[in-house]
Amino acid sequence: MEYRHLGKHGIRVSEVCLGSWLTYGGSTAEDTAQRCIEQAYDLGINFFDTANVYARGEAEKIVGKVLRQYPRESYVVATKVFFPMGEGPNDRGLSRKHILEQCNASLKRLGLDYIDLYQAHRYDPTVPLAETLMAFDQLVKQGKILYYGVSEWSAGQLAHATDLTRLANLAPIASNQPRYHMLDRTIEREVLLVCRREGIGIMNYSPLAQGLLTGKYKPGQALPEGSRASDPKQNMFLNQGELDQRQLLKVQRLLPIAEQEGLSLSQLALAWCLRNPELSSVIIGASKPEQVQENAGASGKQLSPTTLQRIEEVLNMEISDRVTVGV
């Protein structure tokens, strides 16, 4: 396993991070979740991402319970705050009240004295940005968190926030967690540039496009039984099961490139993300220890310029809306 700095900051995280969205505390049994986390740790993964809202706190409990068997200094825990955790008017968002209260609640569920990375799960336009940043700065000063970051903030929001932290001499934003993969490169237009300029580490979620970039979904074929796309509770980013056949055709044309590199398609997709020096880590999800092992194998893989060019040609290819499956 290779390690990278989290942006311009001193902390080093594994190139592959194990996430717990839609899995631990929810669709994956606790004993299986434990084996996945233990497998990750054994493979050198030291970075574990969760959130208070995942299974309403249950994911944090499982992650914390498993990690407590290891020395605290040997792993990095990231969690988040923003989404509703109750029915009250202050049980959501990025007010000072909600941030401070949820940090304490997350510490209790995780069973930790401090959180390595605490993230604003989304941007909150209803709260003054200065109030949000000052709340995170307060937690840093109290030692309850070491660093803080954001998730799915726009380039403008990031730029505004970094300006405020400098003007007010607040702790800087350490990380950004956007969605990024071969089939969704939106952050390359602006967000990546701001993160590069400000030294903000990127830890992207859904690097395998919710499973599309594993190759298990075939053009013109029924969804595999038990797959994420076949589960209406888990396929919110997969167009409710109606998968884009043009995208599936591109994925199939990436397979021989992966084979030539001696990689699985998943490993190729992860290594492609990690070609960006701005990326600190790719966040994977896993419901089986074998998936953790396969994805961890992408760390340290360097793709040649020729391979990157071949990938670019596939990703940029024009495919008609009226595709013929099998072509």
From TrEMBL:
Any Pfam family hit: Aldo_ket_red
Keyword NADP in annotation: yes
Entry's Gene Ontology molecular function annotations: oxidoreductase activity
UniProtKB keywords: NADP, Oxidoreductase
Domain NADP-dependent oxidoreductase: 16-315
Family: Belongs to the shaker potassium channel beta subunit family.
Name of protein: Aldo/keto reductase
